[in-house]
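User: For my dataset I need records formatted as: sequence, then structure tokens, nothing else. Please produce one.
Assistant:
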Amino acid sequence: QVQLVESGGGLVQPGGSLRLSCAASVSIFTFNSMGWYRQAPGKERELVALLTSGGNTNYADSVKGRFTISKDVAENTVYMQMNSLKPEDTAVYYCNGRAYTSNIYWGQGTQVTVSS
């Protein structure tokens, strides 16, 4: 059974940094792409960052230059380094994996709160 487990969320002051981790229970070569989405209260879930199996990346305009998605194939883990955090980055962040089988998997989510 495929599982994605996020960690690394928390409370941080504006301008601070966090690194989110998404550990997969299977090889990340299972996935055609992996990414991070977020959902703020009262808003729809939105794509934040995407990493394809070919190494291409795609970022939401609101996080370009501040967030970086990466992977460690040996650890079957995808990361997202978040710098210069803003209050509007506050949301639950979800890891997503799209398998070559077309199945889509989600993690349970991790809360990120940016506040002074």
